[in-house]
Amino acid sequence: MQIYNCDESGISIVHRPGRVVTKLGRRTVYSLTSAEKGRTHTVVACVSATGFVLPPLMVYPRKRPVPDNFKEGAVPNTSFHTSENGWINSNIFLEWLKFFVANIPPTRPVLLIQDGHISHVSIEAIEFARANHIHLLCLPSHTTHILQPLDVGVFKSFKANFNKACSNYMAKYPGSVVTNDKLAALVADAWPHSFTTLNILSGFKKCGLFPFNPSAVDDRRLAPSKPFCVPQESTEDDNESLPSSPIFTEEQEKLYTRRFEEGFDIRDPNYEAWIRINHPFKSLSVTSGDSISNISAPLSSTSAPTPSLSVPLLSMEVPIMSASTPVLSTSASLLSISNSSNSAESALDKILVLPEASMKKPKRRGINSKTVYLNDVLEEMKQQKHEKEVQAAEREESQKLKKEEKERKKREKEREREEKQRKREVKQREKLKEKEEKQKSKEEKQREKQRKLKEKEREKQEKQQEKNSKHRNCNDETELCERIEEVSLHSEEENSLCPKCGLAYLDDSDESNIWICCDGCNRWYDLKCTNIRSKRRIPDLYYCKDCQDQ
Q1: pLDDT (tens digit per residue) in 294-311
Q2: Which GO terms describe its cellular component (predicted)?
Q3: CATH class of 498-550
Q4: Which pLDDT score, from 0 to 100, does residue 303 have?
Q5: Domain 2-16+34-216 has CATH 3.30.420.10
Q6: Strands 292-296, 2-12: parallel, antiparallel or unpaired by DSSP?
Q7: CA atoms of 191 and 74, how far apart (whole Å)
Q8: Distances (CA, A) of 29 to 17, 246, 427, 464
């Protein structure tokens, strides 16, 4: 079986510069980078346990396909893909699996070790792997730093060599920065120096994968970095009495203290619990009669034996404390201590209510990295996919119903709005019609009023005309005669003036002053103002220029 390990690593056009040599004592050392912050690019690498290296797959953060100038100087047979954030996803990993099958030897089966990233676990990828006899093995969470060969032996060297290549490029071309079109060439510069057979075999060996060596991994590296709690050393004496229990109130404390001082001998479970908590080395026992039988104190090897009473003890009776009774050291006394202890514990059990722990079923949030059987993984993933599809369908159906309900409410509101608008328009038309009718009636009244006023005015004028007609008739004749005289005088004056030059006719006796009358308009013209050059050529009929034009 061939063993392969694949993993992705993030790089950026803003590299991390290495160490800078400077003079001793300088507090600030500067180093040149392309920018302050750059977007992440992903490089997917795959190696085998025998040192075989596959060409890389590079993912650029862009939506359009990778242009040809980005591929110049890249590692031969490099596969280029794009995503929105520059990270690998399920579709790109499926394409990489096809690229993986096309570039490895035909020997089958193949074990492909990878981390449990969500992009590496999909139904399509698993089915494609099964069809090509590839066994996918996902490492447990938070263990790739000690179980993944690429992380252990290769990627650290690759990052260092890539940063070195970026620094060398910027030093070789001053003023230039690392851009996306130079990234593949810089990866190609660092690739052969990092993905060496020695580094790959060392990574598989340190992880204990090939040759198989479970003891190669140190379990202490899986332990938490800090303890959850640090135990504190107790400086108190172990023989000190326990503090008072907070389950007793102040009144109960005072009552039980007084009973203890007075030698209370009546059975009370609460008082027994108080005695057990506050005075654990004191015990009481009650005889079959009413008298106090014995009182015992802590036993010691130096205590002197004392005579004991012959009264039999009742093992189940509640012990009673008395200061006047002698201290016993016999077996009966020991029996009394044990009986009182059991009685106090039973009393405590009745009083104290401890919380009961209940097992809560943990929620399963995804594919467990410890899943061994591929069929179980597929079934679980298919079930999850089916549940997601059902939830998506339910969500879509609910959204559709909500949208329909919203549209229905919108239509109802629109219908109500239209109804209100229609009623409002009807009311407005009615009001406008009433207003027009009122205006018409008002106008008719005004017209009627004006007509009456005109009739009155006309009647008044007719009366005035009749009244003044008598005076006007006599004056009309006089005015007419005067107007005729004025017109005749005015016409005579006009006829005595030449229409062309405006000269007046002076006297007929002057032979040099010759005037000619137009036979068309009967106006007199000075001979000089006509087109007749000599008085001998005066025609019988003469028409002025105006009459000729007409």
Answers
A1: 333 333 333 333 333 333
A2: nucleus
A3: alpha beta
A4: 38
A5: yes
A6: unpaired
A7: 10
A8: 12, 64, 86, 123
